[in-house]
Specification:
This protein is α+β, with helices and mostly antiparallel strands. It folds into 2 domains: 218 residues, PmbA/TldD fold; 220 residues, no CATH class. It is 22% helix and 36% strand. Strands 3-2-1-4-5-6 form a 6-stranded antiparallel beta sheet. A 5-stranded mixed beta barrel has the order 7-12-13-14-17.
Amino acid sequence: MEQEISAQQQNNLPDAVELDSMVRDLLEQAEGKGATAAEAGVSVDTGLSVTVRLGDVETLEYHRDHGLGITVYFGKRKGSASTSDFTRGSVTSTVEAACAIARYTGEDDCSGLADAGRMARDIPDLDLYHPWAIDAESAIDILRRCEGAAQATDPRITNSEGATLSSHQGLRVYGNSHGFLSGYPSTRHSMSCSMIGEDEGKMQRDYWYTVSRKHIELQSAEDVGRISAERTLRRLGSRSVATCEVPVIFIAELASGFFSHFTGAIRGSNLYRKSSFLLDKLGTTVFPEFMHIHEEPHILQGLGSAAFDSEGVATASRDLVIDGVLQGYVLDSYSARKLGMETTGNAGGVHNLFVDAGELDLPGLLREMGTGFLVTELMGHGINMVTGDYSRGAAGFWVENGEMQFPVEEVTIAGNLQDMFRQIVAIGSDVDARGNIRSGSVLIERMTIAGQQEIQA
């Protein structure tokens, strides 16, 4: 693969000083128009995205996006505006638009900048910027190797949905009238492959992907292709099962989505609107005693790492769940004020959420489960955040005697998230670190599986 290049060699991003100057100008213009406070952000993103299907280039895109936004406050009245036009006239018009909006909005006692004392002052280097000097020709070669490895795995791999490589870098700067002004560059590289297999006239598809801040830490093209093919092959011969109540395992790559329902339920905007099934649960038991969930924003090269949130508030390690007990919410300054609390530095979301793993790997969890359903794919969005009711289409594998017996499709799994959280039996050691929420596979004591036909061993 191509060698990593220095920031000096990579000229696709502007100098941070240039964006700093733009943010200062925005804040000065807002002050000049009478705003009592203001905050502004400027971002520039560039990248390459290529998709190859059956050896041919299907899409090839170069990206260069930029934008700026400003929010002004006239007392407790707020106005926001944004633009992707960096010309002087457009920037001035954007500030004027934000000020005009603020003058006509109603007062909100909870609006305003985050408290000045919460601004990040000591900002660590989290090693998030690792640009990749890759051109379209090299990307196409990598993807052809990826797809070729998948096709060579087995004759039953008969078609492809394509292999995609993306490499993106960005620079974001944020400032406000507390005197806070900071930003940092970041990169994100990924490769994925989705294949189609056929046996006895029936087809299945599956995929695999790899993602990292550093391209040298991506899985090889050949491994991504081979794994995507193997995952496709194991789904051939899928069938439904009879409706039943059995233990369920969410495989590790689905666990992040499962725990995102938890973070959504403790997000301030849902809490002050009273639209969360975890309303008023602070200090109560919501998970089993062995559960520990914590946020680690300063992990080097972490996909969710950030020294400060989108309001300039310093981020810090903290516990959300200890011994199964909910310790804190996910709050920005506005929702914190609505709830009579303080911001948790989560404007924009959580930063590297860890669900502590147990000792069992996935085969160990299957043995612990005995008989049940291993979920490897979810479809639809049947989740009610007010009640916690959960119902989604699913595919995976039927398990007996601790081993996968046959692939399953066309079923629905259902339960209630409050019950599902409390009925977690174990968290696997097979942690998936490819996202902002890191967790191993999750074994749940019991869920309803709605199927179509009798189980056939």
